[in-house]
Automatic annotation (TrEMBL):
Residues 211-383 form the Helicase C-terminal domain. One of its GO terms (biological process) is positive regulation of transcription by RNA polymerase I. GO terms for cellular component: nucleolus. This is RNA helicase. GO terms for molecular function: ATP binding; double-stranded RNA binding; hydrolase activity; RNA helicase activity. It comes from Brachionus calyciflorus.
Length: 673
């Protein structure tokens, strides 16, 4: 079938004219239509076909870069144009658009970044926010930005807004946009049969592997399989297990088993869209990155483990954790919808029907379960000075917002100004509420240039002062990718070998300098990178990605007059720069391997993966806390408690009563500036 015929066979084609009328009539429209009905690929085209002379661009945002890229490729094909001309895409670190571009697929994060320099989003006539049910932080914030831009553009160049999904809570979105009308699109192009497990599964990885082989043994090899799992390590090891098991049975057809997760370089991610060699079955093991929007040709079977790794945040102790937990019903339907896109399909859910019934209907918005430091900085950079009163679709708790604002102030990124004072009556008591607005400092403005956690951006700016930007950029780059030390050292023999090899990179100063040593050694051995990495049990793809990120960060430094200074062997300077961003993450040794964090007085321990696991430095700095059976510090460096005072005397003066004796003797008066 030619592409024109395929387009006309999609369910959405039946309502094309009605849809265009509604878009014309209403400033905002909400569209609820089944997965695969044609929303993402067709609506931007319909608008462009009906109004080719439209003044501004038609943007369609996606929560993930892989979706933005592959959908743009598909639509360029359907319009028979070269990608980057009429149809383009824009994702972090990659802009494939031109002056001719009319339809632009982009990540929600990119549109948010554009809003920093243009809060009215004046390049756009139509903004389509796709997959809004995912409720990523970026989508939630964008909803507020787009709504405000639309209100401000009432009289001049009007902005149309369309919200789309297959599985959203339409009332919530409609109410937020002043009772915007909702259009329902029924029907899907191809049927997907759903099967639930009869019994509850105790080991979803085992069940997923067993299901893959049950399918593999019984159906022709040209029917591909997509499996949903939770994270990189689990996926990498499942890919390995399935490949090895299949190879060991000569009676089975060959398999091409591929991983798919966000930390994979773009080129590797796009590999899953390529056809498998003749006679091979393609099996893709993916995180929720493949859950929405995308069409992978050949996928006939979806295996849904029902699990996801997601963020969880407690503002009381500023602890953000990644935790494996059950998906929501709306995610289950999205996963199901990845089959049945070119012909009928089957979805095997590795949970019972009653477990499905117990799942929550919608996903809890990310904004309600994240540390808001980055978002707060971005919003203030957008000129939104009163965050507590910002029109969020789901308002984060005042506690979480204040905690983020407080941290930004401590980082020197924002300045607080008195706004007004209100007296509110609560029962018989009167309560004084003082509100503030916030503006960026010079440092904060520079921090907002970097697409990084503000704490990391702060380290780069201090490194600029101390003259060690090159080293800190390398550390930041390597911290921005997943583990570079190989996790796949299954046997204890291999683990011992890996441990012995790792010793040559290890610095007694801790993980950060160790990572810097790894990065430098990788660069020195670039010509034989692949062999060198396998000899040293290092992850080639993550290191390559770190080099790529380093390149991008250097470009941002160059654009913003940050000199690429270097102090090769000055580990103290480097750790001082790290303290400037992470001084809130310091801990003191107590007893029996236990530490206490200086800020929240939590009991923590050094993570077994740290090079400092067997040492007991008196004071350490860490990047993050992870909670399993205990709370562990990850990415840990040795510091001196006096450096904390030197970096941020006012903050630590108030904590002094909690600090160890050595700090009590510290001569504060000499240091406070
Ligand atoms: N890259 C592709 N290759 C082949 N067919 C595709 C491709 N992209 C889309 N299609 C076809 O177009 C149909 C509609 O896709 P589209 O992404 O527009 O649907 P949708 O309604 O937005 O679904 P979802 O909510 O799942 O993203 C798919 O079911 C598939 O048949």
């Amino acid at each position: 079938m030619n592409l024109d015929k395929v387009r006309k066979s999609l369910p959405i084609y039946r309502i094309r004219n009605r849809l265009l009328e509604e878009i014309q009539k209403n400033p905002t429209l909400i569209l609820l239509g089944e997965t695969g009905s044609g929303k993402t690929t067709q609506i931007p085209q319909y608008i462009h076909e009906s109004r080719p002379k439209l003044k501004g661009l038609i943007a369609c945002t996606q929560p993930r870069r892989v979706a933005a890229i592959t959908v743009a490729q598909r639509v360029a094909q359907e319009t028979n144009t070269e990608l980057g001309k009429t149809v383009g895409y824009n994702v972090r670190f990659e802009d494939c658009t031109s002056a001719e571009t009319k339809i632009k697929y982009m990540t929600d994060g990119m549109l948010l970044r554009e809003a920093i320099s243009d809060p009215l989003l004046s390049r756009y006539s139509v903004i389509i926010l796709d997959e809004v049910h995912e409720r990523t932080i970026h989508t939630d914030v964008l909803l507020g930005i787009v709504k405000s831009a639309q209100q401000k553009r009432q009289n001049s160049f009007k902005l149309k807004v369309i919200l789309m999904s297959a599985t959203m809570d339409v009332d919530e979105f409609s109410n937020y946009f002043n009772k915007a009308p909702v259009l329902y699109l029924e029907g899907r192009q191809f049927k997907v049969d759903v099967f639930h497990s009869v019994q509850e599964q105790t080991d979803y990885i085992f069940s997923a592997i067993a299901t893959v082989f049950q399918i593999h043994k019984t159906v022709p090899p040209n029917e591909d399989i997509l499996v949903f799992m939770t994270g990189q390590e689990e996926i990498d090891s499942t890919v390995k297990t399935i490949s090895e098991l299949n190879k060991s049975n000569s009676k089975l057809a060959p398999m091409l088993v591929l991983p798919l997760y966000a930390a994979l370089p773009s080129g590797k991610q796009l590999k899953v869209f390529e056809k498998a060699p003749n006679g091979f079955r393609k099996v893709i093991i993916s995180t929720n990155i493949a859950e929405t929007s995308i069409t992978i040709k050949g996928i006939k079977y979806v295996i849904d483990t029902g699990m996801i790794k997601g963020k969880l945040y407690t503002p009381q102790n500023n602890l953000e954790m990644l935790k494996v937990h059950k998906i929501s019903k709306s995610q289950a339907w999205q996963r199901t919808g990845r089959a049945g896109r070119e012909s009928s399909g089957i979805c095997y859910r590795l949970y019972t029907e009653s477990e499905f019934e117990k799942m929550s209907l919608n996903t809890i918005p990310e904004i309600l379960r994240s540390n808001l430091l980055s978002v707060a900085l971005q919003l203030i950079a957008l000129g939104i000075t009163d965050l507590v009163n910002f029109d969020f679709i789901s308002k984060p708790s005042t506690e979480a917002l204040n905690s983020a604002l407080n941290d930004l102030e401590l980082l020197g990124a924002v300045k607080k100004n008195f706004q007004n004072e209100n007296i509110v009556e609560e029962n018989v008591n009167k309560k004084r509420i003082i509100s503030y607005n916030y503006e960026l400092t010079d440092i904060g403005r520079k921090m907002a240039y970097f697409p990084l956690d503000p704490k990391l951006s702060r380290c780069i700016l201090t490194a600029d002062k101390l003259g060690c930007v090159e080293e800190v950029l390398k550390i930041v780059s390597i911290l921005s990718v997943d583990n570079v030390f190989h996790a796949q050292t299954n046997t204890s023999n291999k683990r011992d070998q890996a441990e012995a090899v790792r010793q040559k990179f290890v610095s007694a100063d801790g993980d950060h300098i160790t990572l810097l040593n790894v990065y430098k050694a990788f660069l020195a051995n670039k010509s034989s990178a692949s062999e060198w990495c396998s000899e040293n049990f290092l992850d080639l793809k993550n290191l390559k990605l770190a080099v790529e990120i380093n390149k991008q960060l250097k470009e941002i430094c160059n654009r913003n007059s940050i000199k690429l200074s270097s102090s090769t062997n000055d580990s103290v300077k480097i750790r001082m720069a790290l303290i400037s961003g992470f001084f809130m993450n310091a801990a003191e040794y107590q007893k029996e391997n236990e530490y206490k964090t200086i800020t929240s007085r939590q009991i923590v321990q050094i993570h077994p993966s740290s090079v400092l696991f067997n040492s007991k430095p008196a004071c350490v700095l860490f990047n993050e806390l992870v909670k399993t059976n205990k709370t562990y510090m990850r990415d840990v460096s040795v510091i001196s408690s006096s450096w904390l005072l030197e970096t941020n005397p006012c903050y630590f003066k108030s904590k002094l009563k909690n600090l160890a004796d050595n700090l009590n003797t510290y001569d504060l008066n000499n240091r406070i500036r």
